[in-house]
């Protein structure tokens, strides 16, 4: 059902530059390789629904501001739309499209009963107070109306959103339902605080999954992670937890970059101390002691074994990829490597663990939260991490098999798994008899 107030639902338009162009190029390359049915290709090239809401919020000083919120629902052949909400000035329709499309491939690749969605608000959250952010989130939820729902479209955290914001969404969504069904709708979002139906371990699920993938890569290549050096771009949810888990393997974090600073220490940066510092410093690493400050453009050229991009898209580009010396890039972020940069890096023998697999621990964790809510169960942390690791191992194996079958790189192999699964689903249903 479409909320008639402040709502435009549009069909997808012409591809434009940026992440959206990248995702379509990746899709077309893989679709050619697997000889995807032409009709299914047309379906998957398009997004099902693109929702833009303009909603007013009264700020603390009494003035009114109108915000732009997006939710793109790419495809729901495998189940309800699923994917995060981002609060960032770069959120626009193209970014939401690209990120929603990646979610479809990701869910299909790791065998989840979900389609792909993504969205957010075009906003710099640092400019607003906590109570303003709460009102903005609640009005956004209200404006989305029944376009989201536990069996329709299930948002989750992404850049600059977190468990608290998910709790506000769940609370607002439930409060506009009849009292008799309120509590059974908490799984309209995942990534909630544990006290509000959240999953123990969803906070670390993405970073845990990134490191699980690095371990699978290391095992395949007989690499000992102990003593290996790594650098991380973005020290938020994904960047911190990936650093935490990789340090547990004996690897050494030697540089971190966020929007505030680029920090370096070849003797090692302690992820826990850095996280404690960032927590006291609006989430930012700037001002951390025991590190030298580098120019931002020098980050990817740092001598190291592993790079974990865990910030925004299009960070590793044709301009900076020549400087990269690492053996492997584990894509914690969505779309961090441009297509041209990837080509160059692969030609130099650098491995890229593709985002749709590498960061999928998050949505797998979300799936278990959703299932836990549906079944009124509670799982322990060890059980949750084991279940996530298990799905990742299977998906990693499937990616290797398809890469081998078609003699293609890992990203195309991962896409081949996802597209084959979607094609099978459409054909089984008789859409294309
Ligand atoms: N959260 C999740 O479960 C999942 C997230 N992802 C992806 O992982 C990435 C990170 O998400 P998440 O950790 O949740 O987000 P957070 O908001 O928790 O952290 C984002 C980090 O990126 C940094 N950053 C922002 N802009 C820049 C920049 N221009 N240069 C360097 N660093 C920058 C931020 O720094 P600052 O604080 O200074 O702005 C912050 O450290 C995104 O691409 C997201 O889509 C993928 C799967 C699941
Ligand atoms: O947990 C989820 O539902 C989605 C997380 C996400 O946004 C992503 O994987 O990019």
From TrEMBL:
Record carries keyword Oxidoreductase: yes
Alphabetical keyword list: NAD, Nucleotide-binding, Oxidoreductase
Active site: 118
Coiled-coil residue spans: none
GO BP annotations listed: L-glutamate catabolic process
CDD domains in the cross-refs: NAD_bind_1_Glu_DH (cd01076)
Residues covered by the Glutamate/phenylalanine/leucine/valine/L-tryptophan dehydrogenase C-terminal domain: 199-430
Protein name per its UniProtKB record: Glutamate dehydrogenase
Organism of this sequence: Lishizhenia tianjinensis
């Amino acid at each position: 059902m479409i909320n008639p107030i402040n709502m435009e639902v549009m069909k997808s338009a012409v591809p434009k530059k940026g992440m959206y162009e990248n995702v379509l190029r990746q899709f077309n390359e893989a679709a050619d390789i697997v000889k995807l049915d032409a009709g299914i290709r047309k379906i998957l090239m398009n997004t099902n629904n693109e929702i833009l809401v303009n909603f007013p919020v009264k700020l603390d000083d009494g003035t009114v501001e109108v915000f732009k919120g997006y939710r793109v629902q790419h495809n729901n052949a495998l189940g309800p739309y699923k994917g995060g909400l981002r609060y960032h000035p770069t959120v626009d329709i193209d970014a939401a499209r690209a990120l929603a499309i990646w979610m479809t491939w990701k869910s299909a690749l790791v065998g989840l009963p979900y389609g792909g969605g993504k969205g957010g608000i075009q906003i710099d959250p640092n400019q607003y107070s906590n109570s303003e952010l709460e009102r903005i989130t609640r009005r956004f939820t209200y404006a989305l109306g029944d376009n989201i729902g536990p069996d329709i479209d299930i948002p989750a955290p992404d850049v600059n959103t977190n468990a608290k914001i998910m709790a506000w969404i769940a609370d607002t969504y439930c409060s506009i339902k009849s009292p008799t069904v309120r509590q059974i709708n908490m799984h309209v979002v995942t990534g909630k605080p544990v006290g509000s139906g959240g999953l123990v371990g969803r906070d670390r699920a993405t970073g845990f999954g990134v490191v699980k993938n690095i371990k699978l890569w290391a095992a395949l290549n007989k690499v000992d992670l102990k003593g290996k050096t790594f650098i991380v771009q973005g020290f938020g949810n994904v960047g911190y937890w990936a650093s935490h888990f990789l340090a547990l393997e004996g690897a050494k974090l030697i540089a971190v970059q966020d929007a505030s600073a680029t920090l370096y220490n070849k003797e090692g940066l302690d992820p826990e101390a850095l996280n404690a510092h960032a927590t006291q410093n609006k989430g930012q690493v700037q001002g951390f002691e025991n590190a030298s400050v580098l120019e931002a453009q020098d980050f990817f050229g740092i001598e190291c074994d592993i790079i974990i991009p865990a910030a925004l898209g299009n960070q590793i580009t044709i301009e900076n990829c020549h400087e990269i010396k690492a053996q492997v890039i584990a894509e914690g972020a969505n779309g961090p490597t441009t297509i041209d940069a990837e080509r160059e890096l692969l030609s130099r023998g650098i491995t890229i663990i593709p985002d749709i697999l590498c960061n999928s621990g998050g949505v797998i964790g979300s799936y278990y939260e959703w299932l836990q809510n549906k079944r009124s169960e509670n799982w322990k942390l060890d059980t949750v991490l084991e279940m996530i690791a298990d799905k990742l191992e299977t998906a990693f194996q499937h990616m290797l098999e398809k890469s081998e079958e078609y003699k293609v790189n890992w990203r195309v192999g991962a896409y081949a798994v996802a597209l084959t699964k979607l094609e099978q689903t459409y054909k089984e249903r008789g859409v294309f008899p």
